[in-house]
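Weekly structure sync, notes
Attendees: PL, DS, HV (note-taker this week)

Item 1: FapA family protein
DS walked through the input record. Source organism listed as Helicobacter cappadocius. Sequence as pasted into the shared doc:
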Amino acid sequence: MDALNFVPQVIKNCENINDQLQQFSTSSKIAIEKIWFDVLNINTFIKINEKDEPHMITGNELAQFEKDNFYIKEDFFVHQTYDIRIRPKTKDYGINIEITPNADKVYALFDESFVMIDDERFFEEIFGVIDSLMAQNKIIFRQQFQQRENLKTKLKESKVECLFEKILLKTAPDLIPYKPAEFHFTIKEEWEKEKSKIAPENAFFGVGVDGVIAEYIKPIEGKNGRNLKGVFVKMDTKKIDQIPPITFSKTYVRKEETADKWLFKSLISGYVKILNNFITFNTKYEFDSMKLINAPIFLGGLDSGITLTITSDDDLNDAVGANMIIEATTIDVVGSIGENVELRAQTISIKGQTHQSSIVNATEAKIITHKGKFYGENITVKNLDCGFIQANDCSIETSSGGTIYSKKISIKKLKSNNKINFSSECNLKEIQGGNNEFVISSSSHIPTQETIEFINKKISLLKTKMRSMAKEYQFLISKAKKNKPIIDKIKAADKSVQKVMLNDEDIKKAYQEFSIHVKQLKVLKKELLNLQEKIKQLVYNLMQIEDETLRAKINTNSEWKQENEIIYQRRYPKATDQLLTLKDGENVDIYIDSKTKKITKKIS
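Item 1 (cont.): predicted structure, written out as tokens:
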């Protein structure tokens, strides 16, 4: 049997649609993936006792069934059967449904291929697909008009951003599922979520005054009620102790109760961990060196107001030993940083050197000698020695073999083998070496690069939508073409013949389908043009970001030494790399000609 052209089959009073589809697939030798069905009618059956014969409700009984105050009653059993039409699956709408474990909620899910057309006929198609999915999963049909109107409203709201992901379809009117109590070490879990990794064992976590340390979510005892599959669910109503087994000092912690939880809030700034169900604090902030053997790992607390001061006990040992992770609002280090150390704070000062494997994250930082990696906003370095910097603004006294990504860069003494990436301005007071590479690029400034990536992702999403729409457009054209010969005959006939022709059910149906498809094609074409305009605007935004580099410049106060390369990168509207080599003894500044968009020399 032809999978795309078999004669649709109507089945009455179908109880298990999945079984029926499988049976049809087996007997017709058509893959089940190529079969779909429409729900033609829903039959609702009720019985009072489980052993009774169910009777189908109609009229006033059916009207009562629509009401919540009837549906929530316990004294009846309900199930529904369906009249369905099995037909060829002509397209995938990109829709599915999600049912919660207790069947108290059902959601509509939309994948990237989903295409929305703001047209009533289209909404009817979508409602039909969701009806089929509900019937397939034995969700009780009630209050369908309200469900459809709500879905239509949500789809129209989501259309603005072209984001259709998950929309609530139904909620059981009276059922509240039981939910056990939960305890959360909040500051620890927030740290792990942000870092996407498990915190080291026995770590302390920073908290400020009035910050939430932990919370105990009270259990939801639940409420008996009928779920969305028509089953009356009885909850286990065992009494559960709502007091958590957590102890603490009232000097440091305050417990607050809300309607659904207990909050444990800190009365001081400090580092916290929970040990044997006791909230314990570490309030020591000054250390003569910090090593894994003599100091805890401090995590979080960037907004706690805590300042950690770490001083090396002698010049031969690191102030912060290997593999330490330390986070605070402010970190002051007098001494050097060992291997695999991670420091994170709003403000960091290191009066020593960083190991090449160390990582420093800060809004503001001052470092004597930097060999490791820095990520942040602003940094001042006395000696950059083969280190890495990713910042917004950096000021360096001497740089040798460094790698820098920043919007603005100032270097007093530039030695050899540096890779300098910037997007706005680079000031060089004295050039002492060569073999340096300067890259002018919008992506050198990481926040700008993140904006570019966000815009590109949006463009990619819109293009995916356009491809799906184009596929739908071709599908509708093929449908319209199928009926066009009949339409041409109708148009060619005089009015009296047209009237007779339209009395024929098949011709009338073809005419109606053609009219619907033509209308949908017009709407879809409008949507495609709208998406094209959105993409055009986003590409323009990328061009604007790219053109900010036209103001980029390198200012020098001395001659260039040996050979140095200047590279100007543009990625829009197409990728180009320009290269300029500066020879020994040249005394020039560098800027970008805004008209030619070329690297240009200017005698300094």
